[in-house]
Predict the structure.
Amino acid sequence: MASICTRMQNHREVFQVTFCDLKVNKLNSILLGKCDGYIEILTDGKNRFFITTGRHRLYIIYTNGKKQMINLQNDGDCIAVLHNRRVAISKQRNSMKILSY
């Protein structure tokens, strides 16, 4: 299970992801940096969480704390996890971009 928390730090909004087990015991937290307030998080059901921040970044976070950051051409705040290791990302659900991971 994962949750997102945002807060102000140095006059800008930043966010972190906290992972918990099914009994809601905290496993770890990862600070991911700045965002614009439009954050979406989804999982593929295989211990991978995909996070869009409303900016030019997609994060792939594993429950063991490993993280991968993918720079995007455009801002993205909506995400859909597809089959065959692909995700679709869009800004305000207007047009989708499909990426392989």
